[in-house]
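User: C-alpha cells for this one?
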Amino acid sequence: WQVLRKFIIKVEVENTNRMNALVARYCGYDPTAEDAEKVWTRAGNIVKRVISSKSQSDDDDQNIADRLQGELGAFKVGVGAYLIRRKEIEDAMMSAALTLPAASIIENTAGFNAIGLAVIVGEAGNLSNYSSVRKLWRRLGLGMAQGHESKAYSTWRKEGGLSAEDWTIAGYSPTRLAQIYGVVSVPLAMHKKKNKYGEIYDKRRAHTKVTHPEWYVDKKGKAKVNAKGEPSSAHAANDAIRIITKAFLFDLWKCWNQSMTNVKNTVSSAEDEQSKVKKGVASSQQVKSRAKLVPA
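Assistant:
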C-alpha cells in the first residue's frame, strides 16, 4: 500500500508543479525578480482555487484562470482522480494499521494517527526485526553513523562534506525521511502542547539556543525574531522536530516489541493448554483401553 501511496503522491506533486509553472508564466513570473516568490505563490493559489472549485481572489486572477480554462479543467479532472485513489489507499492503510501491534499508541499520543503508523511500517517493515532503535532510526533517515554526529544527514546533504562511501554506510533516503516527516514529525510538533513530546521539544530548543547561537542570526549577523519579537530559527525548530520524532519512534519501537512479546506469551499459553488437553485425552483413552483388557 505504501508503494502505491508514494506513487500517487509523486504523480500528484509533479503535475501540480507543472501546472503551477504554466500559470506562473501568465502571472509574469521572473525567477530573477525580487517578487519571484510572491508571484509563484500567487500562481499556486490560483491552481488551488480551481481544484477546490473556489472563486479567485480578484479579477486579474480570474482572467488568468479563464485564459487557461481548458488546461486547468483537464488538470483538475486528472488530479481529482488521483486524490480519490489516494484516499482509497490511505483508508485501507489506516484500517490495516489499527490491527497492528502497538496500535494503542495512536489513542495515547496527540498528533499521531493510523496513517502515521501505516507509513512507518510500510517504510520499515516489522519493527521487531530491529535489534535496537538506532537501526530503526537509520532505516527512516534519522540515524547518525560514527563520525557524522555533528549534523543531521539532511544538513550534510545540503552542505556537503561526506564521501560516496559515507553515504553508502549511512543508508540515508531523503524520500523515506520525507514520508516520515509529513505524517509523523509535523503532526507531533503541531500537537506538542497536548503530548509529552512538547517538553522534549522545548528542552532541545533551549539547548541549541546555547550551543548553536549561529542558528539564530541571519547572514548579516542580525538576530532572527518572530512576530512576537522572540528569538526564532527554522533550523533550530527542524532540529527539535527531528529529536521528538526519534523520541517517539523509540516509544513506538518499545511498545511494538512489548505487544509482540504479549502475543507470543498468549499463543504459548494457549498451545500449552491445548497440549495438556491432548495429553489428558490420550491418557484417558489409554486407561479405557487397559480396562478392556482386564477380565471381568
